[in-house]
Specification:
The chain is built from 10 helices and no strands. The two termini are 30 Å apart. α6 packs antiparallel against α10. By secondary structure, the chain is an all-alpha fold. 54% of the residues lie in helices and 0% in strands.
Length: 183
């Protein structure tokens, strides 16, 4: 369901999507890859955690502009009086990086960075990782370093587990569809 004032831009040859959740490259009409989905998923996670979007804007075009040029409001600054686990701000901020190369490069890499915040639901996340082949980027890449730098804090539990499960389900579905369509 769209927010009041949202515009779904869907004409052929144009930028399309819901402006509140567009990656900077999508907003600019550039070629999209998995990192664009990581950005949009991070916006959804941000909203799930705070009840607000990472930008204050009054129109769809203002959201598009902010995705392209404005740094998002940090999680810890978004809801006065609400605190988040140490390190979660950094994980979300990295996923919301303006440049695709600066973001997590796969949903699995993003999920690995979120893993320390899964709390009691971590066993479910671990079982999903055991069923999913890990790309080389997790074994020696940035996600391992980011995950080790994050200090374990209070759990946000089920929300992170659901997010990780959705991430992995989306990746598996995308791989299946791409194989079926020959892309």
């Amino acid at each position: 369901q769209m927010r009041p004032g949202s515009v779904n831009l869907t004409q052929e040859g144009m930028v399309f999507g819901t402006p509140e959740f567009m990656s900077p490259e999508q907003a600019q009409g550039h070629v999209l890859d998995a990192t664009s989905d990581i950005y949009s998923l991070a916006v959804i996670l941000y909203e799930a955690l705070t009840g607000k979007l990472p930008f204050d804007a009054k129109s769809p075009m203002e959201f598009i502009q902010k995705h392209v040029v404005t740094p998002p409001i940090r999680l810890s600054d978004r809801v006065p009086g609400r605190t988040f686990a140490s390190g979660l701000d950094d994980v979300v901020a990295l996923a919301l990086s303006k440049a695709p190369a600066d973001r997590y490069q796969s949903a699995i890499e993003f999920a690995a960075a979120l893993r320390p915040f899964a709390g009691a639901g971590g066993a479910l996340v671990d079982s999903i990782f055991q069923m999913t082949p890990a790309p080389a980027s997790i074994a020696g890449g940035r996600s391992t370093v980011v995950t080790r730098r994050i200090q374990r804090g209070p759990s946000i539990g089920l929300l992170v587990v659901v997010g990780v499960v959705c991430l992995l389900a989306g990746v598996l579905l995308a791989v299946f569809v791409m194989k079926r369509t020959g892309r």
